[in-house]
UniProtKB/TrEMBL annotation:
Name assigned to this protein: Gfo/Idh/MocA family protein
Domain Gfo/Idh/MocA-like oxidoreductase C-terminal: 184-376
Organism taxonomic ancestry: Bacteria, Pseudomonadati, Bacteroidota, Sphingobacteriia, Sphingobacteriales
Domain of life according to the entry: Bacteria
Signal peptide feature range: none
InterPro entries xrefs: Gfo/Idh/MocA-like_OxRdtase_C (IPR004104), Gfo/Idh/MocA-like_OxRdtase_N (IPR000683), Gfo/Idh/MocA_Oxidoreductases (IPR051450), NAD(P)-bd_dom_sf (IPR036291)
Gfo/Idh/MocA-like oxidoreductase N-terminal domain: residues covered: 54-171
Length: 462
């Protein structure tokens, strides 16, 4: 599907409101394919925006790949990455000259400003330093979420960005996903009448939870960030964006219930490779996930010779955290987390993050005075209470090459596209997720974590 192939504009009535939306095709009675509308504020670029990527792992690669696909819009001219394999791979992909290749972010800023923007996709606790230095030197910034691991650091970045007059786009990519864009549009146009309440679920999927938050890089909240920010600040942000009103109070509960040493099955060992008696039947077997099925993107840098991949994977399982027993890690991230939020005008929202699901993909229910919406990122169904009529919208997204599910519902590259336009024309209004808009949902996350630990309702003060 291509946006240029839009077939027609659909108009339908919900209550007293007429909803108009561009569609690609009708796929049954009251069922329509659609795609994210073109941003009418976009203008032709005189030249490609130049950027430096700091942190060239998965997220840095996703954003960098936009430049490879659309070189007329974005060119990566510099990089910083301490890992030799990733440094070499990224530099080769973008043809970055040796004088613009660095191991650390500090080294980037020892050189006079040599690009329009900086992409910061470092580990969570390494966002603040490079962001503040980039602002000082006059760069615009595409900043991976979370903004920073403390409220003070988030506010420092916000205030310094305003002082320097620079653009900081936070990578809340769900705001750009066609599914959520349509949901926001319909709410704002009154498709379900006045908004009353939202229920939002993030099912992490059990092996994804283990990959990132039990064995993986975010397993220890003290060394990275709490899971409500590391994983779910996307979700708090999308709820805040949909409601469109200030948050007032928040309460949260949750804990690490299952992935603990006392729950280790009899016969299990420190590693899946140590002759574990129940490895073949364990749902969290590292051997099955990484070696047998290869169903999860490997965290290991594999050699070009595919015949050696199995050997390298098994060696890594014997020597890294990714081969350790999930019941014997030094993890502390909650494996279930629920939060309730009170917004202005008596709007409420409930958010639930759950590790123990067989599926991924966010689920959302939106309740209004004249109708409701139910969606799972694959389709969005609206019911009009007055007529009983249902209308189904099915988003069509552009794939992010090399990544399943089109990168957060197609939002990754749509964010970069808007960022490039904002930098080129120095117009922050071209962005949906500026630092100003994103700080509140981060504060919601910090207050949720404080509520969870203290066992009390927290007032949200901005």
């Amino acid at each position: 599907m291509n946006r240029r192939n839009l077939l027609k504009t659909l108009s339908f009535t919900v209550g007293a409101s007429v909803i108009t939306t561009d569609i690609l095709a009708s796929v049954g009675e009251n069922s329509f394919l659609y795609n994210a509308p073109e941003n009418k504020k976009h203008k032709p670029l005189k030249k490609a925006v130049t950027a430096i990527t700091i942190g060239c792992g998965a997220r840095g690669t996703v954003y960098g790949n936009y430049a490879l696909k659309f070189p007329e819009n974005l060119k990566i001219v510099g990089m910083a990455e301490p890992h030799e394999f990733r440094n070499n791979k990224y530099a080769q992909a973008h043809n970055i000259p040796s004088e613009n290749r660095f191991d650390t972010w500090e080294d980037v800023f020892k050189k006079p400003k040599f690009a329009d923007a900086v992409v910061i996709s470092t580990p969570d606790r390494l966002h603040y330093g490079p962001c503040m230095k980039a602002l000082e030197m006059g760069y615009d910034i595409l900043l991976e979420k979370p903004i920073a691991p403390t409220v003070k650091e988030c506010m420092d970045i916000l205030n310094y960005a305003k002082k320097k007059g620079r653009i900081v786009a936070v990578c809340h990519v769900l705001r750009y996903a066609p599914y959520f864009v349509k949901m926001k549009e319909l709410i704002d146009k009154g498709a379900i009448g006045e908004l009353v309440s939202i229920q939002h679920l993030e099912p992490i999927e059990h092996t994804a939870m283990v990959h990132s938050y039990v064995r993986g890089y975010w397993h220890n909240s003290k060394e990275t960030t709490p899971i409500i920010l590391a994983k779910s600040c996307h979700d708090l942000d999308i709820v805040r964006w949909l409601v469109g009103k200030p948050s007032k109070r928040i309460v949260a509960m949750g804990d690490l219930k299952w992935f603990k040493r006392e729950n280790a099955p009899q016969g299990s060992t420190e590693r899946c490779t140590d002759g574990c008696a129940i490895e073949r039947e364990c749902p969290y077997s590292a051997i099955r996930d990484y070696y047998d099925l290869r169903r999860r993107p490997t965290p290991f840098n594999l050699p070009p010779d595919k015949s050696k991949h199995g050997e390298v994977i098994m060696e890594r399982l014997r020597t890294t955290d990714f081969g350790r027993c999930v019941y014997r890690m030094n993890n502390d991230q909650p494996d279930h987390y629920v939060s309730s939020i009170q917004f202005a005008d008596s709007v409420t929202a409930n958010f639930s993050m759950e590790a123990f699901t067989s599926y991924g993909g966010r689920r959302t229910r939106v309740m209004g005075a004249m109708g409701d919406m139910v969606g799972d990122m694959k389709e969005l169904v609206i019911t009009d209470f007055r007529t009983g009529k249902q209308t189904k919208f099915i988003p069509q997204v552009e794939d992010v090459e090399g990544y399943k599910n089109a990168g957060h519902g197609g939002g990754d590259w749509l964010l970069v596209k808007d960022f490039v336009q904002a930098v080129a024309h120095q117009d922050v209004n071209l962005l949906t997720s500026t630092i100003d808009q994103s700080v509140e949902s981060h504060i919601m996350g910090f207050m949720a974590e404080e509520s969870r630990k203290a066992g009390k309702v927290m007032d949200i003060k901005l």
